[in-house]
Amino acid sequence: MWDEYTLPQDMDTNEQQEQLRHRLHLLYHELRPRGSAYSYVVDTEAFEEHLDLYVGLRQSRDSELWPEVTFDDGHISNYEFALPRLVARGLTARFFITAGWTGQRPGYMGWTELRAMVAAGQQIGGHGWSHTLLPHCDQQQLDMELRRTRLTLEEKLGVAVTTMSLPGGRYNRRVLAACREAGYTQVYTSEPRAELISSEEIVGRLNIRGDMSLEWLQKLFGTDSKVLQKLGQQYRWKETAKRMLGDSLYAKIWALANRQEKDASEAPTE
Ligand SMILES: [Zn+2]
């Protein structure tokens, strides 16, 4: 019954390529024209080079990985700097929005910017209401962080919101069940991992920091690259450290290590 396994005849070569390759989701936060010492900021010119690399990788028959771009938090630079660069290359990214910060928190997008994102064909997902780490929430808080976020984004933007990115990448079984109950079919984490199909319930992502060079990214996507495996291992060590130290001590160490400019008592902006 080979017919069952062949791809539909009317698919063009690029579509076939897309179906057969593992997806690697990249996670960005903030862009700035001259970069920053803060590790979650990526320089705008470097971001353009990354996008050109991703376009080339998607077109290349040799590449095993299919890059997908995502952004967390809803920073205003997503609209100012990322959107025009994505549109210029015909790319669609997924923007995970902290709903309670929208139009409220200085430096973050408002509804006007988000509507422009949707009008330009970009995708929107939830990133909680207040960016609280979800395993710390009781059932009532979980309902606000998940259901209220989805309903507000859907009502204000007129699109279905079925994807959720977990603040700090943190979750447990209770959080996953609450996500499902609140209407999310896919949950995006910060575990660097590639997936064969895009319909997995839990989607891994690789966090892109400002100090990662283009050469490093090229190596990551290279044939038989072991970089992703090593990153996955490092991530699991980090998770073990979080469990052993507890979230608040881990957050303080994280802020020091990443030269966080914001209030050091804030949770990691992952
Ligand atoms: Zn975040």
Q: How many domains, in number, for the residues?
A: 1
Mean pLDDT: 87
Shape call: globular
Structural class: alpha/beta
What is the CATH homologous superfamily assignment?
Answer: Glycoside hydrolase/deacetylase
Proportion in helices: 40-55%
For the record, the CATH architecture stands as: Alpha-Beta Barrel
Sheet of most strands: 5 strands, parallel
- Counting DSSP H or I runs of 4 or more residues, the number of helices is 9
Reading side by side through the largest sheet, how are the strands ordered? 6-5-4-1-10
> What is the number of E strands?
10
List each distinct ligand once. zinc ion
Through-space gap between termini: 46 Å
Radius of gyration: 18 Å
> If you consult CATH, what is the topology?
TIM Barrel
Strand content: 15-25%
Keywords for this structure?
270 residues; alpha/beta; TIM Barrel; five-stranded parallel sheet; three-stranded parallel sheet; 10 strands; globular; disordered N terminus; disordered C terminus; binds zinc ion
Summarize the structure.
The chain is an alpha/beta fold and 270 residues long. It has a single domain (2-225), classed as TIM Barrel, CATH 3.20.20. It contains nine helices and ten strands.
